[in-house]
Specification:
- By secondary structure, this protein is an alpha+beta fold.
- Strands 3-4-5-6 form a four-stranded antiparallel beta sheet. It has a two-stranded antiparallel ribbon with strand order 1-2.
- A hairpin with a 5-residue loop joins strand 1 and strand 2.
- Helix 3 runs antiparallel to helix 4 and helix 4 crosses helix 5.
Length: 204
């Protein structure tokens, strides 16, 4: 492979990564501000909210989510674990409806996968799921906060996450569903730890 070919490939690589690192701000803002209900809500996918699907959940489907909180957690740490599991359950249910069930961990190296999501999609959708859980009265120890961004992940490419705050202590937590395949519980860790560049030990 000659120098010009290498340069072309590297440029294409950067362009592709750049294109999925920044969301369609109009679409993402609309999704983040939407009023949600299990009878209808919008989900981002295809990278940077390039595509949006409208989804409704049946009572039986929602019960699978609510079961993650039965019995209701007695403290904030337990509640964060339930939230993480519930997001995984919602991803599985929604994935079957939107064609995003094949979403793989991360973004890099998985662009050709149908239904693949980037971190902007994941952050928007996790925010929507947390809204649904809050509206149902399943979240008592935390409140939703704005999405957060760190700008030094993967050689400078920005990375986005949903976030929540502990109502009693005010501590902020990242709610990141990007690191694992669709349907896997989200990662919920202190926001400062996440901002330091944290990633799971098994993430490649």
């Amino acid at each position: 492979m000659n120098c010009l070919t290498l340069r072309y490939c590297f440029s294409a690589y950067l362009l592709l990564h750049f294109s999925v690192s920044f969301a369609d701000s109009e679409a993402m803002n609309r999704i983040l501000k939407q009023q949600v209900d299990i009878s209808g809500f919008d989900i981002c996918h295809s990278g940077g909210c390039a595509d949006v699907s409208h989804v409704a959940l049946s009572q039986d489907e929602w019960q699978k989510v609510a079961d993650e909180f039965d019995p209701l957690p007695e403290d904030a740490a337990d509640e964060r674990s339930r939230i993480a599991n519930a997001i995984g359950t919602l991803e599985s249910i929604v994935g079957e409806k939107t064609g995003t069930g094949n979403d793989l961990a991360g973004t890099f190296g998985a662009f050709s996968t149908p239904g693949q999501m980037d971190c902007n999609d994941e952050a928007s959708n996790s925010t929507t799921y947390i809204k649904l859980l809050t509206k149902a009265g399943l979240i008592r120890f935390h409140e939703l906060r704005d999405t957060k961004v760190r700008s030094f992940f993967f050689n400078g490419w920005p990375h986005t996450t949903a976030s929540i705050a502990d109502k009693q202590t005010g501590e902020l937590f990242a709610v990141d569903s990007w690191f694992y395949d669709n349907g896997t519980p989200a990662v919920i860790i202190p926001l400062e730890q996440w901002k330091s560049g944290w990633k799971p030990a098994d993430f490649h």
